[in-house]
Amino acid sequence: MDIKRIVVKVGTNVITNKDNRILHPILKELVRQISVLYERDIMVVLVSSGAAIAGREVIGDTNITDASTRRQVYSSVGQPRMMRHYYSLFHDYGMRCGQVLATKRDFDIGVHRQNMINCYEGLLSEGIIPIANEDDAVSLTMSMFSDNDELASLVAELIDADRLIILSDTDGLYTGDPDDEDSERITEVSCNQDVEQYVQASIKKEGEGRGGMASKLKIAKSTASKEIPTYIANGKRQNVIVDIIDNKEIGTKFIL
Ligand code: GLU
């Protein structure tokens, strides 16, 4: 089957270092790969986290005691910072990008959902790369996604994507500790296969950002069950997105 559109989700752990600073070379490598696919007529929707951390990077400590409000403020400042990085990187590659923020309610059936479809279809038809994130400045409690993995899955379904690629800081699902040489990477999982026992073993570190391997596994299986092959792979690996599209055996692939 011809691949025409894919969704790539990049988590906070991929685009930040251990001091919680944004890693510009990683953003650049992501954009470079998206431009390679663009040249092949494959459009990417990029679901990027990083708003809260990019805000904290500039604001630092605050006097705000309420954690939710603090997250809102960090995200409000950080989201345009992330977009400024992406905007200028895409510009360097002669491409354009646009921002689509959403809360969970926007995916409910009805006018909101249709508005989102129109927006994504409009951007894609113009060759503009949509960059999605949760609207963290206003999404709280009921309107919150469990994490950006859930958002990425909903976007993949919404735009009828041919693939979903979830980039994390591990190479996929492992039978044991990924650093242990006896552990093996599980290359393919069907969506009704029981692999939950491997989740704990596959976790290297779960720093900033919500989500985590258990959530990724659940989301990957449910997306695959909707006939969208889904990958969990290492976003710090060079050329990872292009290699997956070229069918190299990378990460863990989830199929129907
Ligand atoms: N939307 C959040 C951000 O951009 C991240 C959510 C997640 O970690 O999944 O900071």
Automatic annotation (TrEMBL):
Keywords: Amino-acid biosynthesis, ATP-binding, Cytoplasm, Kinase, Nucleotide-binding, Proline biosynthesis, Transferase. CDD domains: AAK_G5K_ProB. GO terms for biological process: L-proline biosynthetic process. Its EC number is 2.7.2.11. Residues 4-234 form the Aspartate/glutamate/uridylate kinase domain. The keyword Membrane does not apply. It catalyses: L-glutamate + ATP = L-glutamyl 5-phosphate + ADP. GO terms for cellular component: cytosol. Its main location: cytoplasm. It is found in: Cytoplasm. Signal peptide: none annotated. It is an enzyme of class 2 (transferase). Belongs to the glutamate 5-kinase family. Catalyzes the transfer of a phosphate group to glutamate to form L-glutamate 5-phosphate. This is Glutamate 5-kinase. The gene is proB.
